[in-house]
Amino acid sequence: MIKVGVLALQGAVREHVQAIEACGAEAVVIKKKEQLANVVGLVMPGGESTAIRRLIDKYDFMNELKEFAQAGKPMFGTCAGLILLARNVVGYDEPHIGVMDVTVERNSFGRQRESFEANLTISGIAENYNAVFIRAPHIVNAGENVEILAKHHERIVMAREGNLLGCSFHPELTEDYRITAYFIEMIKETIV
Q1: How does DSSP assign 37-86, residue by residue?
Q2: Is 167 a catalytic residue?
Q3: pTM, 2 dp
């Protein structure tokens, strides 16, 4: 059975675990960097990117997360997870993990009270996907090797670059597991 890690420093860990298990894979809650060696893919949940970054530094995860991505192992960042993956973050001098060739703007759809749901067309995944946006970022710029998978009002909200997948919204907060299933297929492609 495919083992998919969920970085459990902050955010919707339980919901991602449920989505992974609903797709027939084994979810591993990652609380120590040594556990990364036991999984073939990693979900980086939403939450608060600055707080997650502090915890990544506190528990010395940074080098292992970068090596995980550079080894070609799939990583999926949702909301704050996308911010962590991005090579550039508007208003910040340095990225967090910085492995995905995108520039992201934090809270670009507004604060908590401006949270909303929207139906999206996601290339190769869904014609009508109900996406939950909570203090969501969006992708301002995407590098030439980045495949844009979805937009909302002309803002890029989901993209893939090789083994890296990122979205502005929270697929784990719905019972529609098509995006998680897509990520698991990405993992299968790397272990065949």
Answers
A1: GG-SEEEE--S-HHHHHHHHHHTT-HHHHHHHHHTT--EEEETHHHHHHE
A2: no
A3: 0.95
